[in-house]
Design brief:
- This is SPX domain-containing protein.
- Pfam families: SPX, zf-C3HC4.
- Keywords: Metal-binding, Zinc, Zinc-finger.
- It comes from Pterulicium gracile.
- The chain is mainly alpha-helical.
- Helix content is about 50%, strand content about 10%.
- The protein is built from 15 helices and eleven strands.
Length: about 525
């Protein structure tokens, strides 16, 4: 399938506002056809132009190679064979930037000298004094051939449009060679020309690059507006989720119950949703094996799996997914935000691929190369690679990654994640939290076990401060925070700590806590 059809199919899956700002691939293809016609009208079809540009590196402006004047049939044959016409010495393709306008042009240099083959059958020799009549005929014949050769050179220069009149011609190096049958040396007469430089503007090529450049500039502006709108939406969404995911009054500490907090809360549901979202790694992998952005197909599959898990929360918990209507509205906005990121990822990929394809097609159809940043030209030129910098995504600058980072920085912290408050030893909730003098946090049961084993070094920094930990090291602020935001986990951890402490006391008394009581 041609890329034009594939590009159209991708755009049809996107919202109308994205389709309207996409690169006009078909219109650029039509402009390439006009560029080809313009070059052909100048006698520079792709085969001839590629041969001229290929020879550029071997011929410098300072060189003065000799060229041989050829007939029209020879010139046509060279063009058909893909060889460069011998009347050019150098040709350079430039992209000139003039006040935000791109002006492609060809800069052509004319060779300094020309070689003419003489078909003379006789030249001046030491025996000319003995045969004056023959010498006179020979001199007249030589003069006639010189004039014919000079006239042919002027005619060809006019045909190549490098000179407008014969007055511009100041001389040419005309070399006359004797006939192969003659053993006499060749007489040489030199007439010098000045170098002629010609700048040919390519109007159709200018329209092509201007359309592409304007499209990319418009695309960059549109991407910036999308980023601003997305950031505003995230801040509004985070505020809505914060209102519906606050701890319920029954879970507040005594004396701090606020009437602003709703009687119902969807805190647990939002925590489950965000936990599934983090585990899904929809748009970017954080694992060591395949770290980085995921492909579009992988993102679509993972987003569908995540949506299925959200829909299954009702089945898993045996109750309604949300208690509050505001939560359902916020969830719908959250899913639309992720779907928008997927659309942006498709949009950027399609435009980057369209830009790459159209530049490649331009170079192939016209034989005009893409300039690079290493191009050493004394004239201001635009780097063709910069035309694609706005659409070809890089891992650190792609819009989809920026939006994903915005979700992680703005939205996910609204609901505290239990992994951020877990004990570094047992990996469960650090309840009751003990903060050592080195500021590392552990649960009370793990530190009690370390003290009984005589382990005095902090598991994180190896500072000797475990044995001096006591009730004063309890982080009461963190304890209250855990009771508010993780009420179920706190109660479960409290029960586990009490049971474990009771079992240790029984073992110290020599009683197996796992043995059932037998009444005699």
């Amino acid at each position: 399938m041609h890329f034009s059809k594939t590009y159209t199919q991708i755009l049809l899956t996107l919202p109308p506002e994205l389709r309207d700002n996409a690169i006009q691939y078909r219109q650029l293809k039509k402009l390439i056809n006009k560029v080809v016609l313009e070059l052909n009208s100048l006698g520079l079809d792709p085969s001839v132009l590629s041969a001229l540009l290929a020879a550029e590196g071997s011929v410098s402006i300072a060189e003065t190679p000799r060229i041989s004047i050829h007939s029209d049939s020879t010139e046509g044959k060279n063009a058909e064979d893909g060889q460069a016409p011998s009347s050019y010495s150098k040709i350079v393709y430039e992209l000139h930037n003039d006040q935000d306008r791109i002006e492609p042009r060809l800069r052509v240099w004319k060779q300094r000298s020309a070689t003419f083959d003489s078909s003379a059958e006789a030249v001046e020799s030491p025996s000319s004094e003995e045969e004056p009549e023959v010498v006179g005929q020979t001199q007249n014949s030589d003069q006639s051939r010189r004039e014919d050769a000079h006239h042919d050179l002027l005619q060809q220069l006019r045909r190549m449009k490098l000179f407008q009149d014969s007055d511009a011609v100041q001389g040419a190096a005309i070399w006359e060679e004797a006939d192969h049958t003659s053993s006499n040396p060749t007489d040489v007469e030199e007439i010098e020309f000045e170098d002629q430089e010609l700048v040919i503007p390519l109007l159709s090529d200018s329209a092509f690059y201007q359309l592409l450049y304007d499209a990319i500039q418009s695309l960059e502006t549109y991407m910036n507006s999308i980023h601003a709108d997305f950031t505003t939406t995230l801040h509004r969404l985070s505020s809505d989720i914060a209102q519906t995911a606050r701890p319920s009054p029954s879970e507040q500490a005594a004396g701090v119950v606020s009437h602003l907090i709703p009687a119902k809360s969807d805190l647990d549901t939002w925590r489950i949703i965000f936990s599934h979202y983090i585990d899904a790694e929809i748009f970017e992998s954080v694992s060591e094996r395949n770290r980085g952005e995921r492909s579009i197909e992988d993102c679509e599959q993972r987003l569908q799996i995540f949506a299925g898990k959200v829909a299954a929360i009702h089945t898993d918990t045996g109750r309604k997914t949300f208690r509050l209507k505001q939560s359902r509205v916020a969830l719908d906005a959250f899913m639309k935000a992720n779907l928008m990121i997927l659309y942006i990822k498709k949009f950027q990929f399609a435009n980057a691929e369209a830009t790459r394809k159209i530049l490649k097609k331009h170079a192939k159809r016209t034989a005009l190369p893409l300039l690079d940043s290493s191009s050493s030209s004394s004239y201001p030129a635009i780097d063709a690679a910069s035309l694609t910098v706005a659409t070809i995504p890089k891992p650190s600058t792609s819009m989809s990654r920026i939006l994903v980072q915005a979700i992680g920085e703005t939205l996910l912290p609204v609901v505290p994640h239990i992994d951020d408050y877990s004990c570094l030893i047992c990996t469960n909730l650090a309840f009751k939290p003990i903060r050592l003098s080195c500021r590392h946090l552990f649960c009370v049961r793990c530190l009690v076990k370390m003290q009984k084993r005589g382990q005095d070094e902090c598991p994180m920094c190896r500072m000797r401060n475990v044995h001096i930990a006591n009730r004063s090291n309890v982080d009461w602020t963190m304890l209250q925070f855990m009771q508010q935001w993780f009420p179920k986990e706190s109660r479960q951890k409290q029960k586990e700590n009490e049971k474990e402490a009771a079992d240790e006391e029984l073992r110290e008394m020599g009683i197996d806590p796992n043995q059932s009581c037998v009444v005699c």
